[in-house]
Specification:
The chain is mainly α and 325 residues long. α9 crosses α10. 36% of the residues are buried.
Length: 325
């Protein structure tokens, strides 16, 4: 049973943290797409192996950023106006990276209601930890080589097509489920083609989405809820990872590292989470909070089990499923 105790806010603090802004929301969405465009232009202007790696890392980070902004829209915290959350959060943030706001919202709100409890739909992501270094690095290889991204999409396709005996109906189901992802990616391809760099869609959009995006999504999931202090304490069953600007740029865009604050104040826009953190520290909650200095420290905890290798000895199909966790 999760402890209900929560830090108290003054009416002024509560009003501040609840305040949302259409202008800031629009800026964050434009910022994400602007950084992606600049990273693409950077490699196109100076094509070499180093600039390619930099572009993939930056673009993959902003693709995660789009997913994070969609997450804010799922809480109706990205924009003040509801229809902007539901429309722009879906079409400009979620669908381009293959995420459905409509499907994500009820799933994610269930995670908030039952954080780290048996009813938590995200418990599967944190429960296996700590794991062995061998298991962790095997998953990282699958992520960076695009195996995880490919397998995830294939699993989504199979699930969306269903088991209807009619092949036409199965393809129709797939189109209904994936049409916005397909259309948004077609739009990106057409923009690249109009700019005379059609190949950029594959090399500088699709490749980061299948590789670096998968790597940092896994690290973010580990950091948020794996090997936390107490599953029943709201101050300890979710982690905030304190890190520098450079790491936030490539691993934790749009303040997603302040995850404990997000769970305590779900109504707070992502750009106010640092303020929420300062409020908690000022109230003396720091020693009770699950705080970690940097992602390296988190990973040391998460891969600290030398005897645990969940993939060892499993059939190939089970190892494939484990790669997605």
């Amino acid at each position: 049973m999760v402890t209900d105790a929560q830090p108290a806010l003054s009416p002024e603090q509560d009003a501040f943290l609840r305040g949302r802004s259409d202008g800031v929301g629009a800026y964050l969405v434009l910022h994400a797409w602007g950084v992606i465009a600049l990273a693409m232009a950077f490699f196109i202007a100076w094509p070499n192996p180093l600039s390619f790696v930099v572009a993939v890392i930056v673009i993959g980070g902003r693709q995660l950023g789009l997913a994070i902004l969609m997450h804010d829209a799922a809480h109706r915290a990205l924009f003040k106006t509801t229809w902007l959350n539901d429309t722009l959060g879906a079409f400009l943030c979620g669908w381009p990276v293959g995420a459905s706001l409509t499907l994500y919202r009820p799933y994610h709100l269930s995670h908030h209601r039952h954080t780290q409890q048996k009813e938590d739909p995200d418990l599967i992501l944190s429960a296996p930890f700590p794991i062995s270094q061998a298991s962790f690095w095997r998953k990282m290889r699958r992520d960076i080589l695009g195996v995880t991204g490919y397998q995830r999409r294939m699993e989504f396709f199979r699930m969306e097509m269903g088991d209807d005996p009619s092949r036409a109906k199965r393809w129709l189901n797939l189109w209904r489920a994936e049409k916005y992802f397909a259309l948004s990616n077609l739009a990106i391809l057409l923009v690249c083609a109009a700019a005379g760099v059609w190949w950029a869609y594959f090399a500088l959009w699709l490749l980061p989405l299948l590789t670096w995006y998968q790597v940092i999504s896994r690290i973010r999931n580990i950091a948020e809820h794996a090997v936390v202090g107490d599953n029943d304490d709201r101050l300890r069953n979710t982690r905030t990872t304190l890190t520098n600007w450079g790491m936030r740029m490539v691993l934790a865009p749009y303040w997603v590292n302040y995850h404990l604050e997000h769970h305590l104040f779900v109504f707070t826009p992502c750009w106010k989470l640092p303020a929420a953190h300062r409020m908690l520290i000022a109230q003396g909650f720091g020693p009770r909070m699950e705080l970690t200095q940097g992602y390296r420290q988190v990973l040391r905890k998460a891969i600290s089990n030398p005897h645990d290798d969940p993939d060892h000895g499993k059939p190939a199909d089970q190892r494939k499923s484990a790669a997605l966790i």
